[in-house]
């Protein structure tokens, strides 16, 4: 067994775990790790802010399914990572953040940039650990990858005192390898009970959450749905788990990111099989309304997730892929493939009867028109990245998704500024894939310095900015208080000119104020990003007073009134 610098062993572990790109900022307290990193096969992307580094690692992880890595030095580098760790924990994203630290003997003496980052990070990680001995380095890193991947995936923080980093350990990469990760399967009895309930229901729905995407279970989901002819809805995190042009697609239910016909279909259902969904409050709304008249089956890899929000009639514990596969096998034992029944046809009627308009020609531009152009211009393989605010809600309501890991959104934590660094991570993982970041004007400003990273490393993608010159979602939330306070971001005199900001980074940009110009601007941006190998901005100026989820921009047609053929009094028996 050869004795080597312990940080070389740590880097060897990262390489063998499939990490080809890391995001970070070097500093004095982390330089031994960087000394080992410089001789490895791993590409290092120097970000401009540690939070941006975490979001880039997050984006890389979401599209690869592997563990993303972000590196920083001691003190504020670690505290800057907390938002990214929280985001990854909330959305079940496997990620490792590595921080430098002062010498062990100085931690109690208020040494420069010495902070107890392990204690700070514990609430927003699956595991936060400080390396105490050089000999532990390869094993702590191995365990970090195992924990990040296991069960409900999530982030880990490893803190590295500089005196420990300078140590050596015995290590032979030929004798080492990744630790096994358990893929739990559901109990056969519970699977049989779930299929029995599905078969007995007259108006069942399958609700696909983010766990279906993370678990790479889309094929199993589709096989089950098609065999039993059960309509499928997705949550915001589950977008892409089921193609939205499929005859069995039943929209999205929720209080913000939803389709009107999806809400109607959900309210008409009598059974919901939820797989890898956490029943977030923006999805469920009022639980009394959400649950009334419906039987719930909840399948999740994390046992304590079942019953956390409300008690289901049946719980299944298992990884999404083997769980859906087992449900499909049991269904095939029960019955031959079904044909579309009255319930499937009813869902299609709802889709036809309850659309939201997106064909507005108004000036200022109405937001739905922007997403109509996005849907029609970009191909199904395009990866979209979006964050939080009115534009996320409009995206959830209007944007079409067809493939898993093509619609990335920071769903629960919702940190502003997530999109640009996440898009960088996505593009680093898939250099040949079209990547589009849909941003708000205020969110863009949170981490717009990361545009410099994409420019430096020639990482091309398109940024579509929905600019209403307001803190739009906050302005809408203030309406019941009869106030319009501290939300104005008008750029008429002073403020930020986003086109000039992009040009200052050396990147092309264009502003659009007429709906007929959106398509040409998207075509120009796509071509320019490819030609220049740079991020390119299309800033679309939309009406300032546009609201979501319900407002004149979206529902300028008469509110839907149930038609006789859509009433619940229908005899649903085949």
Automatic annotation (TrEMBL):
One of its GO terms (biological process) is isoleucine biosynthetic process. Residues 8-119 form the Thiamine pyrophosphate enzyme N-terminal TPP-binding domain. Keywords: Thiamine pyrophosphate. InterPro entries: DHS-like_NAD/FAD-binding_dom, THDP-binding, Thiamin_PyroP_enz_cen_dom, Thiamin_PyroP_enz_TPP-bd_dom, TPP_enz, TPP_enzyme_TPP-bd. Residues 388-540 form the Thiamine pyrophosphate enzyme TPP-binding domain. One of its GO terms (molecular function) is flavin adenine dinucleotide binding. It catalyses: 2 pyruvate + H(+) = (2S)-2-acetolactate + CO2. Gene3D superfamilies: 3.40.50.970, TPP-binding domain (3.40.50.1220). One of its GO terms (cellular component) is acetolactate synthase complex. Residues 191-327 form the Thiamine pyrophosphate enzyme central domain. Belongs to the TPP enzyme family. This is Tartronate-semialdehyde synthase. It comes from Planotetraspora silvatica.
């Amino acid at each position: 067994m050869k004795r080597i610098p312990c940080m070389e062993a740590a880097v060897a572990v990262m390489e063998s775990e499939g990490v080809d790109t890391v995001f970070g900022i070097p500093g004095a307290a982390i330089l031994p790790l960087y000394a080992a990193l410089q001789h490895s096969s791993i590409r290092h992307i120097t970000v401009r802010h540690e939070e941006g580094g975490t979001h880039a690692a997050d984006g890389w992880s979401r599209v690869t399914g592997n563990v993303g890595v972000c590196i920083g030095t001691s003190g504020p580098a670690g505290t800057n990572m907390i938002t990214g760790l929280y985001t990854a924990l909330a959305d079940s994203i496997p990620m490792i953040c590595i921080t430098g630290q002062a010498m062990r003997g100085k931690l109690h003496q208020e040494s420069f940039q010495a902070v107890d980052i392990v204690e700070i990070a514990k609430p927003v990680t699956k595991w936060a650990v400080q390396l105490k001995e050089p000999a532990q380095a390869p094993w702590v890193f191995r365990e970090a990858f195992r924990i990040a991947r296991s069960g409900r995936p999530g982030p880990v923080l490893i803190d590295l005192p500089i005196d420990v980093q300078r140590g050596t350990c015995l290590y032979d990469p030929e004798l080492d390898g990744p630790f096994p990760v358990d893929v739990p399967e559901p109990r056969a009895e519970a699977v049989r009970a779930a299929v029995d309930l599905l078969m007995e229901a007259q108006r069942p729905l399958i609700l696909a959450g983010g766990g279906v995407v993370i678990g790479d279970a889309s094929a199993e989901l589709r096989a089950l749905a098609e065999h039993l002819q059960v309509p499928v809805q997705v949550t915001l995190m589950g977008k892409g788990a089921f193609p939205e042009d499929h005859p069995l697609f039943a929209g999205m239910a929720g209080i913000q990111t939803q389709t009107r016909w999806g809400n109607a279909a959900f309210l008409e259902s009598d059974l919901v099989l939820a797989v890898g969904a956490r029943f977030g409050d923006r999805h469920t709304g009022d639980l009394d309304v959400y649950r009334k008249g419906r039987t719930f089956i909840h399948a999740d890899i994390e046992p304590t997730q079942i019953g956390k929000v409300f008690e289901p009639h049946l719980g299944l514990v298992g990884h999404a892929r083997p769980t859906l596969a087992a449900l499909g096998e049991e269904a095939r034992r029960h019955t031959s493939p079904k044909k579309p029944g009255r319930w499937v046809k009813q869902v299609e009627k709802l889709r036809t009867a309850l659309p939201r308009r997106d064909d507005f020609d108004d000036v200022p531009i109405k937001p739905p028109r922007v997403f109509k152009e996005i849907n029609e211009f970009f191909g199904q393989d395009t990866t979209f990245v979006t964050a939080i605010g009115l534009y996320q809600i409009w995206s959830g309501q209007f944007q079409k998704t067809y493939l898993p890991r093509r619609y990335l959104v920071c769903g629960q934590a919702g940190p502003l500024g997530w999109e640009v660094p996440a898009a960088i991570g996505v593009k680093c993982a898939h250099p040949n894939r079209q990547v589009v970041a849909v941003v708000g004007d205020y969110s863009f400003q949170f981490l717009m310095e990361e545009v410099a990273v994409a420019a430096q490393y020639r990482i091309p993608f398109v940024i579509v900015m929905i600019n209403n010159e307001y803190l739009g979602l906050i302005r809408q939330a203030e309406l019941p208080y009869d106030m319009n306070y501290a939300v104005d971001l008008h750029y008429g005199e002073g403020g930020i000119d986003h086109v000039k900001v992009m040009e200052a980074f050396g990147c092309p940009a264009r502003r659009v104020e007429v709906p007929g110009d959106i398509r040409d601007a998207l075509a120009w941006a796509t071509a320019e990003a490819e030609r220049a190998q740079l991020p390119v901005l299309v800033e679309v100026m939309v009406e300032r007073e546009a609201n979501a989820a319900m407002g004149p921009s979206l529902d300028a047609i008469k509110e839907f009134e149930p038609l006789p053929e859509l009433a619940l009094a229908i005899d649903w028996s085949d």
